[in-house]
Amino acid sequence: MKKTIAVVFGGRSAEHDVSIITAHTPIIQSLLALGQFDVWPIYIAKDGSWYSDQAMNDLAYFKQDNFLEHLARQKKVRILFDKGLKIIWPGIRQKTVQIDIVFPAMHGTLGEDGSLMGLLRMADVPFVGCDLFASAVSMDKVLTKQILAVENISVVPYTWFTRNDWGTDRSACIEKIAGLGWPVFVKPVHLGSSIGITKAKQSSELENAIEVAFHYDDKVLVEKSVENLIEVTLPIMGNEELRLAAIERPLNKTEFFDFSDKYLSGNKNGGGVNSRYSEIPANIDKELAGRVEDLGKRTYRTLGCSGIARVDFLVDETSRQIYVNEVNTLPGSLYYHNWKKAGISAVELVAKLVFLAEERFASQQKTTYTFHSDILKKAGGQKRMAG
Amino acid sequence: MLQASEYNIFDYLTWYRKTRNFNLVEKRKGLVRTTKSLLLLVISWSMVLFLSGIGIFLLLIYTGQFKYVFFFLVVIFSPHLLAYGIIIPLLTTRVMVQWPAELLIVNAAKRKLKIHTAIKIGVAGSFGKTTMREILKTVLSEGKKVAAPPHSHNTPLGISRFAKTLKGDEEVLIFELGEYCPGDVRRLCNLVQPSMGVITGVNEAHLQRFKSLERTVGTIYELSDYLGKKPVYVNGESELGQKNARPNHFVYSRKGVRGWKIENQKTDLTGTSFIMTKNDMGLEMKSALLGLHQVGPLAAAADIALILGLSPEQVKSGVNKTTPFSHRLELKTDDAGVVTLDDSYNGNPDGFNAAIDFLASLEGCRRFYVTPGLVEMGSQTEEVHRQIGRRLARTSIEKVVLVKNSVTPYIEQGLKEEEYHGEIIWFNDALAAFVALPLLTVKGDVVLLQNDWPDQYQ
After folding, report:
1. Least CA distance to A278: which residue of chain B?
2. Does residue B89 sit in the same domain as residue B137?
């Protein structure tokens, strides 16, 4: 009998639609092509409702003009987290499907940020990709920088503040930013896919940039812009033994590699990251490439990543200084276009990730989380005695 | 589906009788809106309205004893009445309008071609006709004004329409002579009146229609019968072509043609090269066509060109300009560096063998062979497909991707008989395979897409 695998996507996130693409291209399509799994899509709508129907295995389901009408007719599912994950379709003829493995395909908040991983850990079910801790840390760009800095991994000079800080002491925030030097990048701390990011070249552009970032998040990161910039990214896969894809260089159309460059422009199929605007492998010298790869592996391990992640770098072409910019624990469409050029097909990639999930789960099963104790019995009696 | 079957009533009825689920018949291609198809659509809807009217009449107005019996009979048989009923207007139009009109067009074309002074070359065969036509056209165009019907226009009407476009100053005309039943090639010969012929080979293609290979041979060799002592080139790499060649025929193959000796044949993804030598003359040829099976046709075209007065330099230049034709071992490389060999219009056993041999000859890459198999193989269906499987197994092709249908299990059997060591990957339909292929491949892989099935085959 085939193993059941649930692919979870959508969610209450600004990257809801990107998540739908990632889930289908390549994850669901590859799982179906593998033919080894009974694939169950779990779609979380923008309002937080959970649905599951194998018709959703087809990306066309989400492209229908009357998609929302179709969705309104779908029965919502219940998820049981008791000793494994179960999908339940309630009703007179209630149906239950036991899920053996989960493949999270969620980007951004309330999914990629560790929330989903927490639920899956509670359910005691193997799941693909980074675990709770790496996901949560990597989702917070500030926390990521703080941890990497402790391990002597270079990060670009930055400052951060919350919406409350900005509301109560704006001048202090601006003063901290001015110390960085212009221009600067203003970013929502928890968002990916370059959403809400603005480059401010002078103080007059700053307030607007910060307002844009606070529209998406309550914590904002401002970092010094690296001039003479080469931006490169490196997808990495593995638990203990790491496998690197090719170093990729986005060829920016706009001032920085934004959401539309990444996902929309020039890609006929609308699936996966746009490959036309990136150079694979990046045309950088061997020494620089070696340092990027080494830094990538150190970053992956420092943050406790497993399964898959992508490390983004900023390189100052003049000084040859390499900074780790951020870590993405679920690269859009798994960056399969890059893996493909590195010699790993999407089907092999997805199969390997499922294997890594099972390997990590098996390892976690060796850890003891509970033990027998009579502390409760003793606690009451001792108290009375003490009294 | 009538349109997909090119309005062939026999094919349409075969499909209708075999189909169990009519919900999913338009998998690949929808209705192309032409005057004919729209007219049939209007007639179909009129029949639906008429049958609905009868149903309503029986239910609401008719008061006879068996009103409900008649009503249910109408409901149950309506789909069949519609499916078979549509044939009546089609046949009526064909007999009353289409055939007389076609007769006029064909007769006019025949008169025009009779007085046309160009050298007319007829190309007949179970396979390879379009490739031969295009090779001849490309090579001969180096020194002559050449014209040939476009696409696969190889029926009397298609050729007649092409004849209408001729200006009269063409020096060479090349005609592909299509064969669907005995007598077809003879009829086309009477129309185009060739002075030279090429028989590209005979095999099991369309065997379902011809019932026997002897009938296929007889039909294709109608070209030879028509030409008598005039020059006929025959592909010696086709077993049946070679066997039926007559003493006055010029047999061509990768070894040579009409005294030309061919040596040093090489082929890879960049093309095919060979050297033709005869007496003191040596011609170094290079073509972008893929596969050693192209050497024979290229050599035959070169020989014809020399006979027609082209210089050796013009012939070399012409061969150099031959490139793969649309969907016939056509090479495409995508952004990710995956090479696809689109051979989706190749639907005959010899073509399959040639493509498999070419894929097998490639080195230093992972090779995928993707096929739904062949159609219309009649009584030879099982054996032809088992042979394909056995041939694949004898190569070191790494992956065989099969589309589930009535014939691919025979390919699997052939693979197993020869203990194939690679991976067999199955897909429910061709679309699923096409979606999955980009996910299965990496940079440097070579994917051969062999043949494609229209919706009317299952």
Report:
1. B335
2. no
* Same domain flag for B194 and B315: yes
Do B312 and B408 share a domain, yes or no?
no
Please determine, for residue A386, whether its predicted confidence score (pLDDT) is greater than 50. Answer: no
The tokens describing A225, both together, are 């812009």
Among B321, B345, B362, which residue terminates a domain? B321
Q: What is the DSSP string of B181-225?
A: STTHHHHHHHHH--SEEEE----STTHHHHSSHHHHHHHHTHHHH
Q: Examine the domain organization and report whether B128 and B265 are in the same domain.
A: yes
Length of chain B: 458
Q: What predicted TM-score, i.e. pTM, was given to this entire model?
A: 0.78
pLDDT of residue A301: 97
**A340 close to B (CB below 8 A):** yes
Distance CA B307, CA B147 (A): 18
Residues of chain B whose beta carbon is less than 8 angstroms from a beta carbon of chain A are: 335-338, 425-427, 432, 435-436, 438-444
Tokens standing for residue A269: 């199929």
- Compute the distance between CA of residue B167 and CA of residue A208 in angstroms, rounded to an integer: 70
Chain B nearest-CA distance from A22, in A, is 13
End-of-domain residue from the set B270, B300, B321: B321
Q: Do A346 and B435 touch (CB under 8 A)?
A: no
Does B347 share its domain with B306?
no
Q: What percent of chain A has pLDDT over 70?
A: 91
For B248-285, the pLDDT digits (tens) are 999 999 999 999 999 999 999 999 999 999 998 999 99
Residue B105 falls inside a structural domain: no
CATH number, domain at B136? Answer: 3.40.1190.10
* ipTM associated with this complex: 0.75
Domains contained in chain A, CATH given: 3-129 (3.40.50.20), 157-224 (3.30.1490.20), 229-365 (3.30.470.20)
pLDDT tens for residues B196-218?
A: 999 999 987 777 777 888 999 99
B336/A341 CB distance under 8 A: yes
Q: Do B439 and A343 touch (CB under 8 A)?
A: no
A167: left (phi over 0), alpha (psi -120 to 50) or beta: alpha
Residues 246-275 of A with CB under 8 A from B: 275
Averaged pLDDT for residues A115-129: 95
Using the beta-carbon criterion (under 8 Å), do A347 and B436 form an inter-chain contact? Answer: yes
- For residue B143, give its domain range: 117-321
CA A117 to CA A133: how far, in whole Å?
9
- Chains A & B: contacts with CB separation below 8 Å: 49
pLDDT in tens, A89-114: 998 889 999 999 999 999 988 889 99
In a domain, B133, yes or no: yes
Domain identity same for B71 and B206: no
Which of B434, B439, B440, B446 has the highest number of chain A CBs within 10 A, making it the mutation to test binding with A?
A: B439
Looking at CA atoms only, how far is residue A144 from chain B in angstroms? Answer: 32
Whether residues B14 and B47 fall in one domain: yes
CA distances from residue A239 to A117, A301, A307, A369 in whole angstroms, order as listed? 16, 9, 6, 21
Look over chain B and give the mean of its residue pLDDT values, rounded to a whole number.
91
The Cα–Cα gap between A353 and A209 comes to: 38
User: What is the rounded distance in angstroms from the CA atom of residue A191 to the CA atom of residue A194?
Assistant: 7
Tokens standing for residue B25:
């018949």
Q: What is the mean pLDDT of residues A342-354?
A: 96
Split into its structural domains, chain B has a count of 3
Residue B1 belongs to a domain? no
Interchain CB distance below 8 Å, B439 and A337: no
B206 and B336 co-located in one domain: no
Q: Is residue B99 part of a domain?
A: no
Query: B440–A346: do the CB atoms touch at under 8 Å?
Result: yes
